[in-house]
Amino acid sequence: MHYDIDFRTADNLVRTLVGTGIPALDRLLEGGFECGLMHLFYGQSSFHDDLLRAAVWAQVPKKRGGLESPVIIIDNSNMIDTLKLADYASEFDMNIEEVMENIFISRAFSSSQTYDLLINHLDEFLDRVPARMLLVPGLPDLFTSEGLDTNRAQQVTHLAARLMVKTLEHELVTLVSTRSPQPPRGLPPVGRALASNAQVHILVEQTPMRTVYTLTKHPSLQVHSEYQIRHNARFGVTLPLDFFFEDRPSI
Predict the structure, then answer these.
(1) Can you give the CATH number for the domain in which 165 is found?
(2) Would you say the pTM of this structure is higher than 0.90?
């Protein structure tokens, strides 16, 4: 039996990046989402808007930093907002109808539906739709809300491993999220399996004036934070007192 073994040095490793549609996230990830990696968003649920932006930006031509690709969304959080999608399409100077036609959505209402869609139908979705981006918002949330017993924990472990394999196999940009409350230690509240299989972790936090993104895990980048202003400062705006005292991650 003969095996072909090919070695490459680290300086020849090419990272394929795609823009996020959000300047602060592009800075955080030094160019954008990386193809072939699972990205996990957690923290405050404002990241839903970030995921919707990503779904639109993925369709931008490659020369502008997009994937020029359709998007598949397995929605476990009921996060789809067509008005925001239309707004982002206009912001990115894209045809609204074409953007909507290239976002393929399957809604899951229970953990069993989530499991069935990803285990039994994901290959079919990827065969039918030439998507390079896969969104699975709220992946573990239905499992935890229904009671994370041994069986459901094993299912989440199975889903996490399968998503990582399919992400690598198809060179996808896979974005996963959870709305579960963040534990005191600041770790993603998704269990060890999903936290391990997702190679990139992004913590999203909000202050009265800023959205703060912290990269808490990445295979090649250090832990650091970036932020974007939520509202334009105006003369005469009074901030709440706790704005000056609340704990915020160092930037």
Answers:
(1) 3.40.50.300
(2) no
